[in-house]
Amino acid sequence: MEPPTSSRLNSRKRRKDGSGPNGATEPDGIPPKMSRCSFGLREPAPFSDEVEIDYSKPYIRVTYEEAMRGTPLERPVRVYADGIFDLFHSGHARALMQAKNLFPNTYLIVGVCSDELTHNFKGFTVMNENERYDAVQHCRYVDEVVRNAPWTLTPEFLAEHRIDFVAHDDIPYSSAGSDDVYKHIKEAGMFAPTQRTEGISTSDIITRIVRDYDVYARRNLQRGYTAKELNVSFINEKKYHLQERVDKVKKRVKDVEEKSKEFVQKVEEKSIDLIQKWEEKSREFIGNFLEMFGPEGALKHMLKEGKGRMLQAISPKQSPSSSPTHDRSPSPSFRWPFSTKTPPSSPANRARNESTVTYDISEDEED
């Protein structure tokens, strides 16, 4: 599978007047493709004593103008950069990247000083020389590593490694009784300046460790390192353990406070929602109550309507005024055949009949 490269990203969106890392114009806005068989992309850079050099060919340095125009592939510009590279960080990598991109066709050789030279001229290092060699080997911009590099560059060393230019930042580097160890390189026209990366250096990293020493000591004790390995006294070890316990208690208390705050917040949110729902339901209930029992409510209309129906049901119907009236003749009285007595009645009717005695006289009796 072909590895992804940054040259593919937004290659068509670049302007045609854009320039490459060395100031060269890229044709049609598309950067040139790099070879995938370089050492830096596949494996660590080799050491100088492992690389064969053809000394049969004479060593002729290229000028700065020739290097900027570009040299043939078989004759790259050999650039040398040296340093301690303790606690290898992004500032080191950026400096080597600048050295690699000084010219269109660059072969970068990096020299790393040994522990003996570094301790004598600069000071104690965190990483030993083998660790520093290995760190520089795995930087993608490095083509070759020189172990036990000299502190001051001599003409013999430059000729042995066939160096064309020396890359370093332009700040004078005073050491070994000299105001600037690169002064003779600058006078020979072999110096190629690079820029330092602000905000990052080996001294800054060591300063952070010294400033936060207690934090890192406690962390490593917690991870299983012994007090002897960390050069921590018995009293400090107990102090760090006590601080660790106190921090754990504080963290637990803080977690409980945060959880309680979250719980209270959730209760408040739910109570607010519940109150809003209650208000909505109460408004709806009051509205329905007024609609049913209010002055103009449905119950009043129902009562009026029921009252009207009841009155209409119990009131008699009047005869039409336009209907003709008929004289009704009184019905003839009933009498028992062959008897002048009234028919038998109940005791109540009998009393009533005694008080009022009526006789039915017909026309035949008068005669």
UniProtKB/TrEMBL annotation:
<feature type="region of interest" description="Disordered">
    <location>
        <begin position="313"/>
        <end position="367"/>
    </location>
</feature>
<keyword id="KW-0594">Phospholipid biosynthesis</keyword>
<keyword id="KW-0444">Lipid biosynthesis</keyword>
<dbReference type="InterPro" id="IPR041723">
    <property type="entry name" value="CCT"/>
</dbReference>
<dbReference type="GO" id="GO:0004105">
    <property type="term" value="F:choline-phosphate cytidylyltransferase activity"/>
</dbReference>
<feature type="compositionally biased region" description="Polar residues">
    <location>
        <begin position="315"/>
        <end position="324"/>
    </location>
</feature>
<keyword id="KW-0443">Lipid metabolism</keyword>
<comment type="function">
    <text>Catalyzes the key rate-limiting step in the CDP-choline pathway for phosphatidylcholine biosynthesis.</text>
</comment>
<comment type="similarity">
    <text>Belongs to the cytidylyltransferase family.</text>
</comment>
<feature type="domain" description="Cytidyltransferase-like">
    <location>
        <begin position="80"/>
        <end position="208"/>
    </location>
</feature>
<feature type="coiled-coil region">
    <location>
        <begin position="239"/>
        <end position="266"/>
    </location>
</feature>
<dbReference type="InterPro" id="IPR045049">
    <property type="entry name" value="Pcy1-like"/>
</dbReference>
<dbReference type="Pfam" id="PF01467">
    <property type="entry name" value="CTP_transf_like"/>
</dbReference>
<feature type="region of interest" description="Disordered">
    <location>
        <begin position="1"/>
        <end position="36"/>
    </location>
</feature>
<keyword id="KW-0175">Coiled coil</keyword>
<keyword id="KW-0548">Nucleotidyltransferase</keyword>
<comment type="pathway">
    <text>Lipid metabolism.</text>
</comment>
<dbReference type="GO" id="GO:0031210">
    <property type="term" value="F:phosphatidylcholine binding"/>
</dbReference>
<comment type="pathway">
    <text>Phospholipid metabolism; phosphatidylcholine biosynthesis; phosphatidylcholine from phosphocholine: step 1/2.</text>
</comment>
<keyword id="KW-1208">Phospholipid metabolism</keyword>
<keyword id="KW-0808">Transferase</keyword>
<protein>
    <recommendedName>
        <fullName>choline-phosphate cytidylyltransferase</fullName>
        <ecNumber>2.7.7.15</ecNumber>
    </recommendedName>
</protein>
<dbReference type="InterPro" id="IPR004821">
    <property type="entry name" value="Cyt_trans-like"/>
</dbReference>
<dbReference type="InterPro" id="IPR014729">
    <property type="entry name" value="Rossmann-like_a/b/a_fold"/>
</dbReference>
<dbReference type="GO" id="GO:0005783">
    <property type="term" value="C:endoplasmic reticulum"/>
</dbReference>
<feature type="compositionally biased region" description="Low complexity">
    <location>
        <begin position="330"/>
        <end position="339"/>
    </location>
</feature>
